Amino acid sequence: MGKKHNILWTRNYILFFISNLLINTGTQFLIPTLPLYAMSVLAADQSQVGYLLGVYSFAALLIRPFSGYAYDNLGRKKMFQISIFFFVLLTFLYPFTLNFFMLMLLRLLHGIFFGMTSTGGGAIVGDIVTAERRAEGVGYYSLSNSLAMSIGPALGLAILGVNRYNYLFVSTGILVALALLFAGLISYPQHSWGKKKLDLTSFFEKRVISVSFIMLLVGVVLGGLMTYVIVYSQERGIKNSSLFYLLNTVGVVLTRFFADKVVEERGPSLILLPGFIIFAAGFITLAFSNGVFLFLMAAFLLGLGNGIILPTLQTMVINLVEPSSRGVANSTFFAALDIGIGGGSIVLGRLTGLITLQMMFLISGLFVTLPLSFYYLYVAKDYERKLAANKVGK
């Protein structure tokens, strides 16, 4: 393939990257701020706020199998744009939530369309990049997700200021509306593979189960981190906690200078080992942070680890299936992440009634040894075996 046809940053890829960054940044505006809104305005208690992220993730989980089938059979561009449209519409309804039940119901509906948009994004990125640039293309796509997870909460907290919740909600709505505008400008030819019959394989891709299970385990500790890191910083008396997300972003961005090239040239196993070790070290550092220095060091380490782990695992998933199955493969992968984040936010949230947040983060760091062990004991060999047998990764 000539150099002209092997360019990564094409018009469609740039539009897709911006759209994905905007919608995920808008989503992340609400992750640290909704718990504050629920507790200060709707009189929810600390153990309840874990359900806000939990119900959002589980709603995304429930819709993903159907989304994967729809993206593979009904047109990816059309489904992507429809999903973002309803995501935008629901975003503007947050100022009208009058009690915690209404907020939970809105999070449920919003989670459904988040599941649809993120499933489509994972499939579309595989369509608009060449096989030779796939690890890099998926890496930058994941970078837009990671950047959103890093800068979104900080911007959301800055916009919120002192209880400016309506201003926050309107700003979020405008941001995701811009994502819809950029998505509407994407114009790549729709592939036609013929409609598949509706059965279990339409909703579930068994070839990516082992890799997806790794993401589920990582999601457990991400759920607790996303829900409670700001509450924890306030508990520890750390000012300017929004800097956590800035340092987290720096860690994520740095991984793009080396991680993708290692995956393309040497495979995923070489890079995942340090990724998991750094990720675990981030949680342990966070648990022992008694001042701003260790708090920000933890943010950097967590960004570095997550920036290696998530895009590497997603590249593995895309490599394991043919183009016509990318929708359902990505729905399986993100469903596992949803289970992990949703379950982690709820279970760890309930656990905060029994132990301190410091202990919760320490346990999270030790927990990371589980996905690390499972990868090197089983997943690494399973991946290479399937890749060699199917020969669909090129």
Shape: globular
Mean pLDDT: 84
What is the CA-atom radius of gyration, in angstroms? 20 Å
The low-confidence parts are none
Strand content: under 5%
Q: Write down how many β-strands occur, each being a DSSP E stretch of 2 or more residues.
A: 0
Tally of helical segments: 15
Distance from first to last alpha carbon: 13 Å
- Main structural class: mainly alpha
Q: What is the string of helix and strand elements?
A: HHHHHHHHHHHHHHH
Estimated helix fraction = over 70%
What composes the largest sheet?
none
Could you explain how this protein is built, in words?
With 394 residues, the protein is mainly alpha-helical. 77% of the residues lie in helices and 0% in strands. The protein is built from 15 helices and no strands. The chain has helices at 11-40, 50-73, 76-91, 100-128, 134-160, 165-184, 200-203, 209-235, 243-255, 259-266, 269-287, 292-319, 326-351, 357-367, 369-390. Helix 5 packs antiparallel against helix 9 (243-255) and helix 9 (243-255) crosses helix 12 (292-319). The longest helix is centred in the first third of the chain and has 30 residues, at 11-40. It is globular, with a radius of gyration of 20 Å.
